């Protein structure tokens, strides 16, 4: 099945819409655009469970607050988001009500997913909302998100949500009709229709985001890599083509899944979990853990740092300092110096266990290489 067919046939879908596709250029919600998006989703939604990740809270708060442009400081962004999110949710509730659908608002910070328990709570909430026939409308909880706990951009949030709910596909809708090999505002830029691996992006150059967007095309590429690398097909398309995009027509740029579908636990470990420390591995341990997917034993550790407890997530680093894997550690930080470098036979029975069990361990491998750096500026 091609990735476009996967989007068309998806029973569970995450659709992300960017600020620029929901707001007017001078700030303020463009209800006609929002209604058109909802019509497209509702048309597709018969028999499909859709989670909508919607940006636009900050942009929608500009006009009500009389702000001429997107503020730079976090406090004013948060104030604008507080005002704008209300407008956004009300507009979605009204638009979906025309189709007899109920919406539920889900506002997340990265705190809600980096620890295992809140992650499972979020997963359960989505399951219940979808089971009740509700369309969850998700955004970052901008009013309380500090720099430290921000997802940063909703493209990434959408890719994470796609995995949390085990979506069959992810659709990123923007004000541009796909990924171009250069900033589409520059002459001669050509649409890339399909990405099946790193080679398709090797020559791609990204320019600045639109005036209301946050991450620009670079964050869409990173999100598409995250999702497709974990087995979820991705489509990047124009919000103006939403109906065609959701029907699997040949619009936009499609990213074929290029990795095994990770279990929710392994995906969480690789991409979402906050790490509390580092274990330093010798070369033999790196080969065993990354190459042969074995558990990490004390004998292969040369040192550790961080203030972690048993059950926390730590980075596993090779002798050159590169992070090669992540895993749930089975010891407290203060226990490690005693066992570091010692073979199991040499350890007292109560310490004779894996430092990181193979089931709780994921290799960290870059999938699609970074595209070429930006060289084009705005017009
Ligand atoms: N190589 C590229 N391909 C496509 N779009 C690009 C590229 N480089 C820069 N862009 C710009 O990225 C913008 C989309 O990103 P952004 O403004 O963050 O959108 P959104 O608000 O939908 O998330 C488009 O307006 C487009 O002009
Ligand atoms: N959470 C922010 C949007 C952040 C974001 O990623 O924006 P965009 O690049 O327009 O998808 C908001 O609602 O204003």
TrEMBL record:
Which CDD domains did the record assign?
AAK_G5K_ProB, PUA_G5K
Assigned EC number = 2.7.2.11
**Does the keyword Ligase belong to this entry?**
no
For this UniProt entry, the molecular function terms from Gene Ontology, in alphabetical order, are: glutamate 5-kinase activity
Nucleotide-binding listed as a keyword: yes
Pathway note: Amino-acid biosynthesis; L-proline biosynthesis; L-glutamate 5-semialdehyde from L-glutamate: step 1/2
- Binding annotation for ATP: 16, 174-175, 214-220
Name the UniProt key words of this record, in alphabetical order. Amino-acid biosynthesis, ATP-binding, Cytoplasm, Kinase, Nucleotide-binding, Proline biosynthesis, Transferase
Q: Which PROSITE patterns match?
A: GLUTAMATE_5_KINASE (PS00902), PUA (PS50890)
* Catalysis: reaction(s): L-glutamate + ATP = L-glutamyl 5-phosphate + ADP
Query: SMART domains annotated for this entry?
Result: PUA
Detail which positions bind substrate.
55, 142, 154
What InterPro entries is this protein classified in? AceGlu_kinase-like_sf, Asp/Glu/Uridylate_kinase, G5K_ProB, Glu/AcGlu_kinase, Glu_5kinase, Glu_5kinase/COase_Synthase, Glutamate_5-kinase_CS, PUA
Where in the numbering of this chain does the PUA domain appear?
277-356
According to its UniProt record, where is this protein located? Cytoplasm
The free-text function statement in the UniProt record for this protein reads: Catalyzes the transfer of a phosphate group to glutamate to form L-glutamate 5-phosphate.
Which PANTHER family does the protein's record reference? GLUTAMATE 5-KINASE, ISOPENTENYL PHOSPHATE KINASE
By sequence similarity, the record places it as follows: Belongs to the glutamate 5-kinase family.
Q: What is this protein called?
A: Glutamate 5-kinase
Protein source organism:
Actinomycetospora lemnae
């Amino acid at each position: 099945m091609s990735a476009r067919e996967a989007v068309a046939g998806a029973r569970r879908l995450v659709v992300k819409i960017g600020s620029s596709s929901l707001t007017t250029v001078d700030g303020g919600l463009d209800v006609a655009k929002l209604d058109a998006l909802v019509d497209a989703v509702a048309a597709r939604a018969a028999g499909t469970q859709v989670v909508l990740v919607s940006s636009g809270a900050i942009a929608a708060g500009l006009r009500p607050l009389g702000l001429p442009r997107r503020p730079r400081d976090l406090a004013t962004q948060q104030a604008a988001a507080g005002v704008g999110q209300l407008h956004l949710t009300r507009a979605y509730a009204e638009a979906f009500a025309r189709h007899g659908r109920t919406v539920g608002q889900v506002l997340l910070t990265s705190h809600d997913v980096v620890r295992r328990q809140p992650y499972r709570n979020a997963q359960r909430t989505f399951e219940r909302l979808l089971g009740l026939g509700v369309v969850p409308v998700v955004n970052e909880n901008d009013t309380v998100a500090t720099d430290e706990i921000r997802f940063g951009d909703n493209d990434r949030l959408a890719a994470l949500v796609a995995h949390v709910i085990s979506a069959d596909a992810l659709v990123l809708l923007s004000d541009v009709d796909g990924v171009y090999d250069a900033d589409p505002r520059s002459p001669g830029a050509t649409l890339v229709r399909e990405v099946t691996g790193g080679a398709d992006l090797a020559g791609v150059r990204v320019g600045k985001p639109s005036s209301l967007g946050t991450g620009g095309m670079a964050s869409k590429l990173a999100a598409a890599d995250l999702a497709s690398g974990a087995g979820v097909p991705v489509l990047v398309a124009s919000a103006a083509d939403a109906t065609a995009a959701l029907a699997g027509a040949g619009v936009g740029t499609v990213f074929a899944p290029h990795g095994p579908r990770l279990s929710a636990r392994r995906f969480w470990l690789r991409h979402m979990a906050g790490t509390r420390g580092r274990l330093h591995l010798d070369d033999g341990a790196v080969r065993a853990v990354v190459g042969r997917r074995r558990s990490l034993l004390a004998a292969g550790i040369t040192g550790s740092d961080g203030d972690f407890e048993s059950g926390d997530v730590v980075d596993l680093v090779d002798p050159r300092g590169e992070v090669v894997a992540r895993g749930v550690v089975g010891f407290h930080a203060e226990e490690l110096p005693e066992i570091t470098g010692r073979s199991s036979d040499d350890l007292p029975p109560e310490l004779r266990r894996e430092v990181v069990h193979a089931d709780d361990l994921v290799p960290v491998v870059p999938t699609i290489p970074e595209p070429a750096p930006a060289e084009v500026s705005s017009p």
